[in-house]
């Protein structure tokens, strides 16, 4: 069965964009199933670099149909500007399909995201400020605005008024902000209708038919397993389900149709925003990882927090996603260390713990137990096969595979499409 899920196994920014682009040439559909323009997926093709936020990375592969599924939250202004930015660079975006059931991020959602963070002060999540949390909250509260609503003015007016009646009280009375006029929001949203109409369809029907016809469908996750609202480091998470099950609900495809689940795994660990991070480094090694790995956010430009590889997290990602494969990225960044620490377990209140603790308190107290693996100094960016890697780099990969619980089927040795060692074929 030709449906694959590709998702982040850590806290996001593992290299999902590159991995999706690599497979893009061989798949018929690439589908975003959750999140929104909080994502920042980098794709490097030759000397061209693209940063995609809302559009699936498959949009850069001419034979591939990009799909934004029902589980995504869509900021229409961002979508249109991303499309026109790609058009200006000669990318054909006309095949895009957009679910009429996807929820819209409106100006009041972005405002609420920012004021809520300010109000939280020290306890803030460190969101991307793109309105993601408030839009998903409205969806669950059944006061959201969906893509299809902008094609019916009277319904749109009623829904925006209903949503704003309540929100304006909060904005004015709690946050001391000016109320937002419903008419203005309605007018803005109606202005997108003609531009978006050509893309909108029943994506669930299209995708299920495609799978039944034997077409290859790739579901591209945003964020990562530890940012999942159910399975991540709650409350320091995003507001959607990047984990494998999210592909089913976020695209309307049953779990029996999914044949493979690929976890994208960085050879070390990074995190953006607040929240626990047991292997985080505050010394020059952390700074070195940040500099060599160019660990700066694609969406917000914030420096990423950096640390050593955490096998407890990787094992957890294998478990909650049912991973069949890993795609290990950024192995090249680790070149030059004499020894590389890898976290194999945690110590929590004096006890060794092998699995991710379900209790938030325990996770906050988790101290990494490190095993030292020998490093390598040879440049590996030109390696094409596993055998081309220095012995110690091979041993590092094999050790990570052993600890993480699923085969490593590809290895990234640079940002470019061809800077990849393919071990097992994904298709
Ligand atoms: P995503 O959000 O998971 O798509 O990842 P990001 O694009 O936010 O961050 C990953 C960064 O690492 C990007 O700048 C990629 O170009 C880069 N990258 C991906 N794979 C590799 C790799 O194997 N080696 C190196 N050096 N860079 C990589
Ligand atoms: P990609 O797809 C890394 C983080 C934010 C914050 C938390 C909640 O590029 O891997 P949100 O705006 O979603 O409400 O913020 O989630 N976050 C990401 N971190 N990569 C991402 O996406 C992220 N998207 C959200 O930094 O901590
Ligand atoms: Mg990213």
From TrEMBL:
Per UniProt, substrate binds at 298-304
- Tell me the active site: 13, 41, 139
Task: Note how many cofactor molecules are bound and how.
Answer: Binds 1 Mg(2+) ion per subunit.
Q: Does the keyword Cytoplasm apply?
A: yes
Q: Where does IMP bind?
A: 13-16, 38-41, 128, 142, 223, 238, 302
SMART domains noted in UniProt: Adenylsucc_synt
Query: What are the binding positions for GTP in this chain?
Result: 12-18, 40-42, 304, 330-332, 412-414
The record's annotation in PROSITE patterns points to:
ADENYLOSUCCIN_SYN_1, ADENYLOSUCCIN_SYN_2
Q: Which GO terms describe its molecular function?
A: adenylosuccinate synthase activity
> What does it catalyze?
IMP + L-aspartate + GTP = N(6)-(1,2-dicarboxyethyl)-AMP + GDP + phosphate + 2 H(+)
Q: Do the record's keywords include Magnesium?
A: yes
Which key words tag this protein in UniProt? Cytoplasm, GTP-binding, Ligase, Magnesium, Metal-binding, Nucleotide-binding, Purine biosynthesis
- Please give the SUPFAM superfamilies that the UniProt record associates with this protein: P-loop containing nucleoside triphosphate hydrolases
User: Which InterPro entries does the entry link to?
Assistant: Adenylosuccin_syn_GTP-bd, Adenylosuccin_syn_Lys_AS, Adenylosuccinate_synth_dom1, Adenylosuccinate_synth_dom2, Adenylosuccinate_synth_dom3, Adenylosuccinate_synthetase, P-loop_NTPase
Binding, Mg(2+) = 13, 40
- Cofactor(s) required, per the database record: Mg(2+)
Q: Quote the EC number.
A: 6.3.4.4
Query: Which pathway?
Result: Purine metabolism; AMP biosynthesis via de novo pathway; AMP from IMP: step 1/2
Spell out the subcellular localization from the entry.
Cytoplasm
UniProt record similarity statement: Belongs to the adenylosuccinate synthetase family.
Q: What does this protein do?
A: Plays an important role in the de novo pathway of purine nucleotide biosynthesis. Catalyzes the first committed step in the biosynthesis of AMP from IMP.
- Self-association and partners: Homodimer.
Please identify the protein, giving its name as recorded.
Answer: Adenylosuccinate synthetase
The organism that produces this protein has a lineage beginning with: Bacteria, Bacillati, Actinomycetota, Actinomycetes, Kitasatosporales
């Amino acid at each position: 069965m030709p449906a694959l899920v590709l998702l982040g196994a850590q806290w996001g920014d593992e290299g999902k964009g590159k991995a999706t682009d690599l497979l893009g040439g061989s798949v018929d559909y690439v589908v975003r199933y959750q999140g929104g323009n909080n994502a920042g997926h980098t794709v490097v093709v030759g000397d061209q670099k693209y940063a995609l936020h809302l559009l699936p990375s498959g949009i850069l592969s001419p034979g591939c149909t990009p799909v934004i599924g029902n589980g995504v939250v869509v900021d229409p202004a961002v979508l249109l500007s991303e499309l026109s930015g790609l058009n200006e660079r000669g990318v054909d975006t006309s095949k895009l399909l957009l679910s009429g059931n996807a929820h819209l991020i409106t100006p009041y959602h972005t405002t609420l995201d920012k004021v809520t963070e300010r109000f939280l002060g020290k306890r803030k999540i460190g969101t991307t400020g793109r309105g993601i949390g408030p839009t998903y909250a409205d969806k669950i509260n059944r006061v959201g605005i969906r893509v299809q609503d902008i094609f019916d003015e009277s319904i749109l007016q009623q829904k925006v008024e209903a949503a704003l009646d309540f929100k304006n009280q909060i904005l004015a009375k709690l946050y001391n902000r000016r109320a937002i006029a419903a008419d203005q929001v309605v007018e803005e949203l109606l202005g997108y209708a003609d531009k978006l109409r050509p893309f909108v369809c029943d994506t669930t029907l299209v995708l299920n038919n495609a799978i039944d016809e034997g077409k290859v469908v790739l579901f591209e996750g945003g964020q990562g397993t530890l940012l999942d609202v159910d399975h991540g480091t709650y409350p320091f998470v995003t507001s959607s389900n990047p984990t494998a099950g999210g592909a089913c609900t976020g695209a309307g495809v049953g779990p029996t149709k999914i044949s493979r689940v690929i976890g994208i795994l960085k050879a070390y660990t990074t995190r953006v925003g607040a929240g626990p991070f047991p292997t985080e480094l505050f010394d020059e090694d952390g700074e070195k990882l940040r500099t060599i790995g160019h660990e700066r956010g694609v969406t917000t430009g914030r420096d990423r927090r950096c640390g050593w590889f955490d096998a407890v997290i990787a094992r957890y990602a294998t478990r909650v996603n049912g991973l069949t494969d890993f795609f290990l990225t950024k192995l090249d960044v680790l070149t030059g260390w004499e020894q590389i620490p890898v976290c194999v377990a945690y110590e929590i209140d004096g006890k060794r713990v092998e699995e991710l603790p379900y209790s938030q308190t325990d996770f906050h107290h988790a101290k990494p137990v490190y095993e030292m693996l020998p490093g390598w100094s040879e440049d590996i960016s030109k390696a094409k096969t596993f055998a081309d890697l220095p012995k110690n780099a091979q041993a590092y990969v094999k050790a990570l595979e052993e600890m993480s619980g699923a085969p490593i089927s590809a290895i990234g040795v640079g940002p470019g499409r061809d800077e990849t060692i393919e071990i097992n074929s994904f298709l």
